[in-house]
Amino acid sequence: MLSASQPAAWFDLESPADQQRLQNPELMLGALSGLVVIDEIQTLPELFGVLRVLVDRSDNAARFLILGSASPVLLRSAVETLAGRVEFIELSGFALGETGSDAWQSLWVRGGLPRSFVATSDEDSLAWREGFIRTFLERDIPQLGITIPAPAMRRFWTMLAHYHGQYWNASELARALGLSDKTVRGYLDLLTGTYMVRQLQPWHENIGKRQVKAPKVYLRDSGLLHGLLNVPDWSSLAAHPKVSASWEGFVIEQVWHMLRATEAYFWATQNGAELDVLFFHRGRRYGVEVKFNEAPRTTRSQHIALSDLALEHLWIVYPGQHRYPAHERITVWPIRELVELPGQLCQ
Fold first, then answer.
1. Tens digits of per-residue pLDDT, 11-56?
2. Distances (CA, A) of 178 to 142, 173, 188, 215
3. Of 333, 312, 58, 308, which Cα lies nearest the Cα of 204?
4. 197-200 and 216-219 as β-strands: parallel, antiparallel, unpaired?
């Protein structure tokens, strides 16, 4: 869409013809002006050095839009080479603001990856996700220079799906898979760095209570979670033992996207008090609780969080229809109206 609205040059680095055009990249790219799109740059990471030279030239007339699969090594290379010259934009899958709130069930079941969401049937959607998982493991991971056998990573990823929404316990996963703690930690960091997994970090408050220190682990795309759990449709999901954990992860990702949060945490004490999401806005603290319940009520845990964390307000997000106050600082909020939540922060 950006390239269609203005004169633009386009290079797809998975195309042999475009690779041939960039045999001498400094000469080729240096002669261009306007928008220059370079897609799949992870296949030619040495281009970052050339781009640094070009953008530093006083007569440079081009702006470069670089696209590519997420890679910790690639991002680090871009930061080191193009420091002060680059802006990073993370593109997630579809969110409620893009699909429309009435599509929340389909978005939850199928996830936000475009071809999965727009598939003509649940069967086609599940088949596409299975193909994506195989391609990611068998092609994308090796392409990033990571030599982990695809079956081993598939087992770990599937096991992680069963731990979705739980506290990270490397020793427990390592024993289950017959691997070392260090190995499973490396696998987790790899999936986190490639945006497949979110590690939600704990918040520590100086309140004289023992608090949870391990992160909580979520698969970021609910459709991939359901693919790994072999959950094909809505009726299967509603009856699955992981439905509440899946709902929690789905809502957290939507909240993260709506708020454009750069930092968010969860909070929990060893005595059982817990808050699913803690975030900050203009120096004030806010909380989000996620409930898979048709008529959620306030709990002792929520009141403890309000008090101990000095929250300005707390929202309980649920799959029902109506918005209503449950306390002077707690509002029950339906998933259909989640796109309106950021506006509450300005009031």
1. 999 899 999 999 999 999 999 999 999 998 888 888 888 999 999 9
2. 23, 8, 15, 22
3. 308
4. antiparallel
Nearest to 201 by CA among 278, 306, 91: 278
DSSP class of 65 = E
- Return the half-sphere exposure (C-beta side, CA atoms, 13 A cut-off) of residue 65: 14
Contact 326, 318 (CB under 8 A): no
On whether the CB atoms of residues 284 and 329 are closer than 8 A, the answer is no
CA 326 to chain centre: 30
Query: What 3-state class would DSSP assign to 44?
Result: coil
pLDDT in tens, 195-214: 899 999 999 988 878 899 99
Residues 276/288, Cβ–Cβ less than 8 Å: yes
> What domains lie within the chain, and their CATH numbers?
3-81 (3.40.50.300), 96-344 (1.10.10.10)
Please say whether the dihedral angle defined by the alpha carbons of residues 299, 303, 304 and 309, taken in this order, is positive or negative. Answer: positive
φ/ψ of 97, rounded to 5, equals: -65, -20
DSSP H helices in the chain = 16-21, 25-30, 47-55, 72-81, 96-99, 104-110, 114-117, 122-135, 141-143, 150-162, 170-177, 181-193, 222-228, 234-238, 243-259, 300-308, 341-344
